[in-house]
Amino acid sequence: MPAKLQPSEQQPGKLLIVSSSDTKFFGLLKDMILSLERLARQPASRIPAYALGIVDLGLSDEDRAWLAERDAMIVAPRPHMGAGSLDRPLELAFLVRPFLPEYFPGYDIYCWIDSDVWLQNEDAVLGLVDGAAEAGMAIAHENERAYRFQRWLFLWTAKHFVLGYGPFRGAWLLTRPHLNAGMFAIRAGAPHWAAWARRYKAAIDKTGKITPHDQFALNQAIYQDRLPTRFLDASANWICDRGVPMWNDEAGAFCRPYAPYETISALHLAGPGKRTAYRIARTGGGSFTTMIRYGAAPVPAPAAEPAGLSVAAH
Domain spanning 7-235: which superfamily? Predict the structure, then answer.
């Protein structure tokens, strides 16, 4: 696994991968980290050396010990922008993200990956890191033909865009490709940090709500402030409950549910995806049912019995 960079070793160009979790969701965080480590260990891996930062939302001593084995830097969140309380650490997880350079100073690229994301290949991380280095920020959009229309989600999004940003600006934002903040990368010193915090604070002051304005304010900052941003497609942050993937039998991986069945880079178990078992169609025919967790795969078919033998009934 990549060694953690000590503060004295931090040089421009260094990458920090950041996430957050409490002990309830620590299994998901482990999946994310293990999937990243697997990719980074591959002989031909192009993932740069990285340090690991974790925002502690209520981890156990055992959780912290596992992270310490990976030299992870663990920090406690705090309120920001006049909002949040130490008694509600899960809310603080949303507030900290525009301030990551303050929690983990000294890095050049900050790449956030939600704890309920896991990685199948390195394309998502490389796209985010390269995009942030080049443009200042990189993030995936949710314009994906395989995503089903969810009326409740559309109405919920419209409601909060209007409440947080007014009817005209909210309606305009609703027409933009929605950007999911479950994965993103921002370069240190980029204007995105301050613009995000400013737009986020305005939405909190207007609505009194911390969520969902963490993500919605980021959309507003990128689009309204015309911040230079590289947009990645949905494979870099695939929302599984919106578009159930298929299984590519040849690649041995979850893939887009249409030809040419390209492997999905990052699978995001947002919302119901964390607790739902899905029927997964296979490119070779048939299907299997599974939760889309790291390591999930169809169970191999039993070997055929040799001719002339019978199986005893019990």
Answer: Spore Coat Polysaccharide Biosynthesis Protein SpsA; Chain A (3.90.550.10)
